[in-house]
Design a protein that fits this description.
There is one protein chain. By secondary structure, the chain is an alpha+beta fold. Helix 1 packs antiparallel against helix 2, helix 2 packs across helix 3 (32-41) and helix 12 packs parallel to helix 15. The strands form two sheets. A four-stranded antiparallel β-sheet has the order 1-2-4-3. Strands 5-6-8-7 form a four-stranded antiparallel β-sheet. The protein folds into four domains: 5-88; 98-146; 168-252, Endonuclease I-creI, CATH 3.10.28; 274-405, Endonuclease I-creI, CATH 3.10.28. The radius of gyration is 31 Å and the shape is extended. A hairpin with a 2-residue loop joins strand 7 (317-320) and strand 8 (323-329). The protein has 21 helices and eight strands. It has helices at 5-16, 21-28, 32-41, 49-53, 55-63, 68-75, 79-88, 94-97, 102-113, 118-125, 131-140, 168-180, 198-207, 237-245, 266-276, 296-309, 330-341, 349-364, 373-388, 392-399, 402-405, and strands at residues 181-183, 188-194, 215-220, 226-235, 277-281, 288-294, 317-320, 323-329.
Amino acid sequence: MTISAEICSEVCRLYKEGHSAAKVGEMTGISNVSVGKIVRRNGIQAGSKGERIGIDKICQAYLSGKSAPQIQEEFGINHVAIYKILKKNGISSRDREIEINDDEIQQMVKEHESGMTMKEISDLHGKTKSWSTISRRLHNRGIRVDYKREMPVSEYALDETVFDEINEESAYWIGFLMADGCVQYNGRIALSLQLRDKEQIIKFRNFLKSNHKVRESTALDLEKKIYPNCAITVTSKKIVDRLIHFGVTPRKSHTAKVHEELAFNRHFWRGVIDGDGTVGMGSKTLYARLSLVGSKYLLEQFQTYVKSICPNCDASIKPQVNIFRYALGCGPAIEVIKNLYQDSNIHLDRKKERANTLIWLYNVRPGHYCKQQDFRDRVLRAASECMSADSADRIKEIENEPSVYYPQEQAG
């Protein structure tokens, strides 16, 4: 797209006035990348907003009596940047020059104990618009300040007790977060999935009894391809501490290991499979396939769980790029899929549907060889039709038509 000379001139003017590249782009209808190119092409020195507005103007405005919030409103520059400019130029902050005598301190203590916030006390005494100054003065005199009272009340609901008791739902979501979740020590919990799995994000939000927003955006996959995704982020130090207890820790990709309390919980492992596993079948056969990728420690625990269901299973854990992979096929895969998904109340819908298809195929006609992809697709459609049909006669009808639904040539 060719940008006209008029727009280029307007971009330069706005940028010199101190507007950010993003703001200039929004005002002129072009991208901030294009703004940067135009600015550089016209020899305009890129720098901080304060430098472009003029440090002298900011300092002069402050010395004339204007407060940092007033300068912020006038020039559109962050108050933190204003104080940095003042400090760099040897100008003391007026807040720090404020003197509060002992009588005022005692009065402020009584007001704070009565339930007033620092901001309310600050406004009442007219000392400063920054409640942090009053708070600092009290703290320096050894007076305890209730900082929780200063925090704004969250508009979002959240039940912080959801992981206190281990049941089907809580165990499942611990497993799913072990695979696809992200937690931080500061209490942040994030879950991001492909847009097609938005319903799963909503299920998680419902589990938390929350009204947090589910945000849609785009992201890059491992092959640097853009795909639509959706995410939810909540904050709860209590929930994070509980998740860490069960092994859902920050930066867990190579160290994930579940607490022994959940090591044999099928709901937990269904959550892990829904997050980082694959439920499907071979490309040339109708044999079931079940695989999981993750840390070696977690896969060793899953291997132990599988052997509790199929003692003779000899599948091994193998390295895959910078993580590990554990894969099952045929009978063991079906047995584990049955264990995980039959009679489940919480699951990823598309994997539950595929699990039901595989279980149905295995019960009706196990172990068929298939050379043609279109035949394999017909079998899956037949299975889906049977599972959704109300009539048992229709299922029997399909079972008795091997020439239509099953190949005449079979393995062996």
